[in-house]
Design a protein that fits this description.
It contains 17 helices and nine strands. It is α/β, with parallel strands linked by helices.
């Protein structure tokens, strides 16, 4: 059904079966990533016996899994039986410049997939079932499950890598002197901003245990001497920074409206009249090409962490509470940049 030329000609029952089997396809992709199948293909095509040996799996199991991987588009199989990675399969290799391996691993993890099984509970209650399923909220869970946290953080790094260049290319930094990246992690986004804008200096604010990983990222980008590392939480009052642009990227969607107001209140408290705020998020209802992706992201936020994807009007209302006037929105692929100015 997946490879049908026109699934809309199928009966509704078969179309629904195809949709419901989407989680099975995702399971194949996640297992492919978790087992490191793409990494086993150094040197080109393999026989299934060679692949079984490299993965340490039984040959019969590899036959069956290869059939599934070919069916979902990760590999092709030649008439004589050798298998080769497709472009999609290659993007699950650890060192591919387009790698999404860790995101696929995260989406197949018990932390994510077992929680998604409780989506009906989230819809009935309006709250994330993560704590009920795993015994604690997602952020505390990651703190106490370092192996899962490594995969999650690597997955977020992969996502940011694909987001950063379009975002930076869509923004005009020429009128600013200093940018504070609030909750900016290890500084991946700030590094590119500073590389592309040599006149700028930056302030990177995040938790101390996160910032300890930032110097390597900043030094590799050649911008470490232009960045002030500032330990702190966006749930607390922000220290004065002298920045005239405040940047927060893919943070607010992790939180409900109450906690989002706290974050925005603290940012607004550090801004002077005339300072600007740029919020990078996937915004609901601005580009129908991404409607499905953003709708599914919204469900993931609900399931995992009580967060939500918001519309431009949602942001307008939230910002107005803290005397930040919404000035516009720029597009950067899946992401948007919401721009606001502190007016009082």
């Amino acid at each position: 059904m997946k490879n049908s030329a026109n699934t809309t000609t199928q009966p509704a029952s078969l179309q629904l079966l195809d949709l419901a089997m989407g989680s099975w396809r995702a399971g194949v992709v996640s297992a492919f990533a978790e087992l490191g199948v793409a990494d086993a293909f150094w040197g080109g095509s393999l026989t299934k016996t060679q692949l079984a040996f490299r993965l340490g799996l039984e040959r019969d199991i590899v036959d069956r899994f290869c059939r599934a991987a070919v069916a979902v588009g990760l590999m092709t199989e030649a008439p004589h039986g050798t298998v080769t990675l497709t472009e999609l399969g290659e993007a699950l290799a650890t060192h591919s410049p387009d790698s999404m391996r860790n995101f696929a691993r995260w989406s197949g993890s018990t932390a994510d997939r077992a929680t998604w099984a409780h989506l009906p509970v989230a819809l009935r209650t309006g709250r994330s079932p993560f704590a009920a399923v795993h015994g604690t909220g997602v952020w505390d869970f990651l703190d106490t499950h370092p192996d899962t946290a490594v995969v999650f953080n690597a997955a977020m790094t992969e996502l940011s890598r694909h987001v950063i260049r379009p975002v930076v290319g869509s923004m005009d930094f020429s009128g600013y002197q200093s940018v504070m990246d609030v909750g900016g992690g290890r500084g991946a986004l700030l590094s590119v901003v500073l590389q592309e804008n040599p006149h700028l200096v930056g302030v990177l604010l995040d938790q101390p245990e996160v910032l300890v990983q930032a110097p390597q990222v900043l030094e590799e980008a050649g911008v470490a001497d232009r960045v002030t590392l500032t330990p702190g939480s966006f749930f607390d009052e922000l220290p004065p920074s002298g920045s005239d642009l405040f940047l927060i990227s893919n943070v607010l969607h992790d939180w409900d409206d109450i906690k989002t107001r706290t974050i925005l209140r603290n940012i607004a408290g550090a801004m002077r009249p005339g300072d600007d705020l740029a919020i990078v998020e996937a915004v609901v209802g601005v580009d129908d090409r991404f409607d499905e992706a953003i709708a599914l992201m919204d469900m993931d936020m609900l399931v995992i962490c009580d967060g939500k994807q918001r519309s431009l009007e949602d942001f307008r209302v939230l910002l107005a509470e803290f005397h930040i006037e919404l000035k516009g929105l720029s597009r950067a692929g899946l992401q948007s940049i919401i721009r606001g100015t502190k007016i009082t």
